[in-house]
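Lecture notes, continued. The same structure-token format from the folding unit now serves as the input rather than the output. Read the line below as a description of shape only.
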């Protein structure tokens, strides 16, 4: 049988865990009234890199800079800016690094096509090495082996 003190302790721990998870919410700003606008906001903040953390989106980061960027994006959406205008603003202010998926432009074109060229180069090199190895003679004749007793 469970003792009453154990039941109270377990209940207290469960309640504190639930309260702790809601207290640590990152984006505490009021949601948009328009669900479409809220969905755009969620999409944009999940595509923008936290410039301080560098390995998180501003949606997942609790850094002050991420909070400031979320507030700025919310303001721009309230002003009626399009997603492209918001991304342009972020790139102009912080560079392509601010976006998790940099645009395919002249500056980033090399980064987008380099993996394909590296794979093709590796495949070409593999074919060349295998063909050269196939042209080498095979010494399977046991009579060609050097007898250690005769070599002296």
């Amino acid at each position: 049988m469970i003792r009453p003190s154990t039941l109270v302790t377990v209940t207290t721990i469960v309640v504190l865990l639930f309260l702790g998870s809601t207290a640590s919410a990152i984006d505490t700003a009021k949601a948009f009234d328009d669900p479409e606008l809220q969905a755009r906001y969620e999409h944009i903040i999940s595509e923008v890199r936290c410039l301080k953390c560098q390995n998180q989106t501003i949606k997942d980061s609790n850094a002050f800079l991420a909070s400031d960027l979320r507030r700025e994006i919310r303001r721009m959406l309230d002003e009626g800016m399009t997603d492209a205008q918001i991304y342009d603003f972020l790139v102009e202010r912080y560079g392509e690094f601010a976006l998790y998926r940099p645009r395919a432009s002249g500056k980033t074109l090399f980064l987008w096509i380099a993996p394909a060229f590296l794979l093709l180069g590796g495949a070409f090199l593999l074919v060349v090495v295998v063909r050269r190895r196939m042209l080498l003679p095979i010494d399977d004749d046991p009579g060609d082996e050097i007898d250690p007793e005769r070599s002296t």
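Point for the exam: DSSP finds five helices and no strands in the chain.
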